[in-house]
Amino acid sequence: MGRMQGKAVLITGAASGIGAACALRCAREGAQVAGMDVASPAGDGWSQVEKAAPGAMFVTADVRDEAAVEAVVGQVCERFGAIDGLVNAAGVAGIGSAADLDVAEWDRVMDINLKGSFLVSRHVVRGMAARGSGSIVNLASVEGLEGADASVAYNVSKGGVVQLTRSLAVDYGKVGVRVNTLCPGFIETPMTEMLNQEALKAIRDRFVAMHLLGRGGKPEEVANVALFLLSDEASFVHGATITVDGGFMAGRSLTG
Questions:
Q1: 254 band by pLDDT with thresholds 50, 70 and 90
Q2: What's the pTM value of the predicted model, to 2 decimals?
Q3: Strands of 85-88's sheet in order across
Q4: In the list 34, 91, 101, 232, which could disulfide-bond 76, CB 3.0-4.6 Å?
Q5: CA 26, 28, 34, 35: dihedral to nearest 10 degrees?
Q6: Would you say residue 30 lies in a domain?
Q7: Active-site positions?
Q8: Alpha-carbon separation of residue 101 from 92, 154, 158, 183 (angstroms)
Q9: What does the alpha-carbon distance between residue 210 and residue 197 come to, in Å, rounded to a whole number?
Q10: Could you give the CA distance from residue 180 to residue 169 in angstroms, rounded to a whole number?
């Protein structure tokens, strides 16, 4: 029997990257899986989810649209009866410092990364609180724990996700809902593909070199930790901020 047998999980940003990896990991552990994204699933990823979890559903919707979010949560509950786990993986990158970033770009990044996580959590946690159980996993970033240059909107949005987690943990732990944050380091996803451009390759290589394991991570490696937090194995893990970063936040090697 899988670790998520009998549980239903909603995953945002499920079309690709970490969200897609979380969907497949949960499906293979017996969960009923619902995916949500503004984009259609990439490649054959969702067909693998459906193969592992017959009855899995995918809904195209924008996490910034509260009416759409509420409708999706209602559809998932109608389909599966309840939502036992939520992974807020929808997110976008944003480039620019405070002096040169367009305000519209600030709003876009903040709305997707932070407001979107709030809106989906808002509508899912109500049902979890009423039932007295549930687990929410929010995806932040190591850049939500320390700053990075030319990324002011991304840094602030991911720092906000960390604080959103803490606030939800304080409000809902007392009724049995666990809430935790994952902070990945450099993960090979469609969002980080832009760093493969020749003009940005040096930045990419420096960033990867700052990970003590000497490599970037894979979406599946983040999904493994998300699965643990969703499962009953993490029954006493609450309000935590967990890095999945190959040692990035541990420190820097000064000897090469």
A1: confident
A2: 0.97
A3: 57-60, 32-37, 8-12, 85-88, 134-139, 177-184, 241-244
A4: 34
A5: 80
A6: yes
A7: 154
A8: 15, 11, 17, 24
A9: 19
A10: 8
DSSP class of residue 113?
Answer: I
Tokens of 213: 């394991």
SS3 call for 3 = coil
- Where in the sequence is the domain holding 108, given as residue range(s)? 8-188+218-244
Mean predicted confidence (pLDDT) in 25-46: 94
- The domain that contains 46 carries what CATH number? 3.40.50.720
Nearest CA to 56 out of 10, 16, 1, 5 is that of: 10
Angle among Cα 51, 57, 58 to the nearest 5 degrees reads 110
Query: How many structural domains comprise the chain?
Result: 1
Confirm whether 193 is domain-assigned: no
Q: Is residue 252 part of a domain?
A: no
Segment 114-138, tens digit of pLDDT: 999 999 999 999 999 999 999 999 9
End-to-end CA distance of the chain: 45
Distance, CA of 168 to CA of 46 (rounded, Å): 30
**Residue 85: φ, ψ to 5°:** -140, 145
Report residue 196 as tokens: 């493969």
Within 13 A of 170's CA, how many CA atoms are on the CB side? 5
